[in-house]
Amino acid sequence: MSRFFSKKYEALTPYTPGEQPGGRAFVKLNTNESPFPPSKKAMEEAAKASERLQLYPDPTCKRLTEKMAEVLGVTPDKVLMTNGSDEILNFAFMAFCDKEHPAAFADITYGFYQVFAELNGVPYEQIPLNGDFTLPIEKFLRLPHTLFIANPNAPTGLAISLSDIERLLQSNPDRVVVIDEAYVDFGGQSAVGLTEKYDNLLVTGTFSKSRSMAGARLGYGVACPALINDLNTIKYSTNPYNVNAMTAAAGYGMLLDEEYTRANCKRIIATRARVKEALEGLGFVVIPSLTNFLFAKREGLSGMDYYLKLKEKGVLVRHFETERLKDFNRITIGSEGEMDVFLKATEEILKESEGVLL
Ligand code: PMP
Q: Are 109 and 142 members of one domain?
């Protein structure tokens, strides 16, 4: 830390992104990316946009916003496109949280919520998940806080129902509820439709998972026009050109090919079922997942050991070191072939581990 760094950030612990290894070619199952490339239409649109990079992008992202609204079945004034969904989540902390409106989120959830709260000087409460990692809805119902809920949750993969989301929205109409749907396309139910009925709901989404565009950084939010206006105030006060021209074009191309996205999600869901069954056959406990990853542990095999042994064999998964999570690893669902490599490596590790023989 230099002597110039502002005191207000002194205690900030930044988010730790998953490893992005250079050099050795890993089977990369650690950051929940899609194993499939973006649609050809996305690449074509991005290439066209690259010919006009001397110009600033359209700050309103008009063409993309209108297409996104059409795909989601809402009006364009209810949609804001952002630089990844991380950006709209940060905007939400800036717009809807302060000392009078602290934030609340689960103790086990997307790590960036805590970082954004700290960054913005927002007081926050972390509500412990139940022993089986389900969300204690009753505890959230009573809170006056702005709520941040990943649905499905990460890294557990578990979801709450739309009726529980409605209970949260109704129980206190004077607080904003943010539902982070980064993984919703892998079997979850979207709350976007509820934005027609509730003016205190913000739903966020991303192109990083089901839409194969993690490298381009594109996310979005859906809410009533008044909330979108507030978020736009933050956007135009930080970076009006938050979505670059090539990303906006690629996103538009991606949305022209929803069939491709749906087919990829179907493949991931089928592979997820196969891998879950195979892991259970090998003695693992696997949390039922509605996402593109599995959260799994095995008695007799420490989470850290399993992570390190997989890494030695060229397979990267995500390990968390906190007390409640340290037995587990989060395994992204890759292509069929990648998951075969992963399962073979797992079998070898079990065979090699004395006392945990198959
Ligand atoms: N929400 C959740 C729950 C996530 O896991 C992620 C991905 N790390 C994000 C939001 C952010 O995704 P992105 O910024 O790539 O859209």
A: yes
Residue minimizing CA distance to atom 1 of ligand 1: 182
Q: Is 84 in the pocket of ligand 1 (CB under 6 A)?
A: yes
Give the dihedral sign, CA 254/255/258/261: positive
- Identify whether residues 85 and 211 lie together within a single domain: yes
Q: Show which of 257, 288, 305 is a domain's final residue.
A: 257
- Tell me the best of 112, 186, 290 to mutate to test the pocket of ligand 1, counting ligand atoms within 8 Å of each CB and taking the most: 112
243, 328: one domain = no
Whole-structure pTM value: 0.96
Same domain, 119 and 213: yes
- State residue 18's pLDDT score: 80
Cβ count within 10 A of residue 296: 25
Q: Has residue 281 got a pLDDT over 80? A: yes
Same domain, 123 and 253: yes
In a domain, 1, yes or no: no
- Centroid of ligand 1 to alpha carbon of 85 (angstroms): 6
For the chain, the domain total comes to 2
Under the banding of pLDDT at 50, 70 and 90, the label for residue 86 is very high
CB 33 within 8 A of CB 332: yes
Residue linked to tokens 């050795």: 24
Is the CB of residue 214 below 6 angstroms from any atom belonging to ligand 1? Answer: yes
Identify which of 206, 292, 293 to mutate to test ligand 1's pocket (most ligand atoms within 8 A of the CB): 206
Poorest-pLDDT segment among 16-20, 128-132, 220-224, 321-325: 16-20
Cα distance between residue 229 and residue 250, in whole Å: 25
> For residue 186, is it within any domain?
yes
Are the C-beta atoms of residues 132 and 158 closer than 8 Å to each other? no
Which is the closest atom of ligand 1 to the Cα of 154? 3
**Residue 74 in tokens:** 């809402």
